[in-house]
Fold:
Amino acid sequence: MRKVKIFQLILATLSILGWTLAVYALMVFGEARPEREVGSYLSRGETFRHYWDPSETELLQYIIWGCGAISLISLAFNYYVAHHSKLGYWFNIPLLLLTSLVAGLYVHFVI
Structure:
């Protein structure tokens, strides 16, 4: 395989891995956050969790920072590839890094 094809394959793998972790973080977020009080459940006498689940929140934090680390590695590799070949910058990598950074800081400092 040519060098550019290998670079594209590595970038695509890192990007897919990072976005897969981001989607998994969204699923964990649904379990970590407080439950919504819905009228139909209240009428049945159901109980709700009004606080963040500490174990799920810790898992969420690790997943988000892992996603940020993967996207940072991918961004550094993308910078190298863009300067050493005709392959341009990939837009989704900085977007994933920014999203992971903001989400990680939010979970760490606000929750």
